[in-house]
Amino acid sequence: MRCTQIYRLFWYTIEVGICYEKGKLKVYGASQLSSIEEIKYALSDWPIRYPFKLWEVMNFPVEIDRIQDRLFEIPSFEYLRVIQDDFDSYIKSNQLI
After folding, report:
1. Per-residue model confidence as pLDDT tens digits over 33-87
2. What is the pTM of this model?
């Protein structure tokens, strides 16, 4: 596994994460929460949203110098635990630890 893949996972969850809570789209990413404009943008109809799939996220390019026009959404904030478990399994199955 390349560090780039781990960074991409970090970016699309911790930095620019979006999720649904009680049927409403919410922003939880740190870089988004630091800007009202980014929050409005992330919650608008402008960005393309993909369902979160670990392997796709880890291989999707990141451009940190602009507002993201593509985001990966998760069904709930608690789903981060599923992502963690899937990532742990991926690492173990590929004998990366």
Report:
1. 999 999 999 999 999 999 999 999 999 999 989 889 999 999 999 999 999 999 9
2. 0.90
What are the structure tokens assigned to 44, written together? 């608008």
Q: Show the tokens assigned to 9.
A: 């996972």
* H-state helical runs in 26-68: 30-33, 36-43, 54-58
Q: How far apart are CA 57 and CA 44, in angstroms?
A: 21
Q: Which two tokens stand for residue 35?
A: 């800007």
Q: Where are the alpha helices (DSSP H) in the chain?
A: 3-10, 30-33, 36-43, 54-58, 79-93
Report d(CA 61, CA 13) in Å as an integer: 14
Res. 12: pLDDT tops 90: yes
CB atoms within 10 A of CB 32: 23
